[in-house]
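Progress report, Aim 2. The chain analyzed during this reporting quarter is listed below.
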Amino acid sequence: MKKIYVLDTNVLLQDPLAIFSFQDNYVVIPAIVLEEVDSKKRFMDEIGRNARHVARLLDGLRDKGRLHVGVLLDNGGELRVELNHRSFSQMQDLFLDMTNDNRILSVAINLHREEQAKETPRAVVLVSKDALMRVKADALGLPAEDFLSDRVVHEFSNLYKGFTTIKVPVDVIHEFYGRNELIVSQHFPNQAYFPNEFIILKDELGSSSSAIGRVSGSGKHIIPLHFGDEMIWGVKPRNAQQKMALELLMSKDISLVTLTGKAGTGKTLLSLAAGLIQTEDEHAYKKLLVARPIVPLGKDIGYLPGEKEEKLRPWMQPIYDNLEYLFNTKKSGDLGKILAGLGSIQVEALTYIRGRSIPEQFIIIDEAQNLTKHEVKTILTRVGENSKIVMMGDPQQIDHPYLDEVNNGLTYVVELFKNQKMAGHVNLEKGERSSLAQLAADLL
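Predicted structure tokens for the chain:
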């Protein structure tokens, strides 16, 4: 039997096309949701863009009929704007204030009670990205669900890691070192690997013999690493995943690199070191561009004193900390002089690289887990010829109000590009900042 889905505002602000994601069921948008969407339409960020998109979609649906009566959707479902949000004593006993959230709950409860009075009632389900909203619905005896259609993987544990560990006879490891390749169809005939996926070979009998290889772009061969043990701009990889990351960062045939991992795993330091050596020493790229999104935990950038560079400094400080380490600066202000002298290193807020075409540059996007799938599309489609882009972050550390570990832009890129030979990914697991930092990341 068809269901009735009542949508919370955050669902539409996360994905304006959500109204078409419920197949042939009934979709109800409470009137208060329209007011909340209207209040966001002047924002100049992703939320504002989505609010305007929702407005245009609903305006276009008016051609099919009156929205408060209900209009048919192309997928066989029906959309209706619901005006009835009368409060109930049951809600007043639990939640004293008639907030916008409670008005949305009221719509869902009214519909639920109306359906229960029918001979064949339809299920009424509240759909919300807000966990507490779902908890409140549950307290009222109302079914509630998260909006899952925007998830590229259902569980974070299923996210592509970029490497696989295989136990093999020790002769296979010796053959790999001797021939500098393994033929996948010969040694692993029943396995299919992604392009540029790393393979960790371990002796099945438990000896210390091991090897790390990378699947070729064709997926037919496993080839050795070329850069895994090199010292790059004073930085040497300390573990297997860092070796894999450096291989991707230094390989000229890979245009898109994604790195995930907890704080302290070396994502930023390795990326900057690889970018510096290829920009300053090898001159493979004209510029090194480093950017990160500004997702404020407190006041926005506009409230900070000074010009743009002064405003950006607190947001970009993690980048500057790593650059100070790589350039081995001793005094405050030395880094600024170095960067000014080089002229080929640019540190920007992500806001300032929108709309640009970026050819022949090594681009690093830090904290990419705070980007939406639309924002990463905007960035990737601006990458020019002969450029390389690195996107990195920790999907489990989200600051964006409408994103989580499985629907953020970085996770989308990891999953959707894992089949492409020009892309590579590694999940860094071991922290190398300090033993205390690793312990804190694990325990906290």
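The chain has 15 helices and 17 strands. The chain has two domains: 4-145, 239-443. These observations will guide the mutagenesis work planned for the next reporting period.
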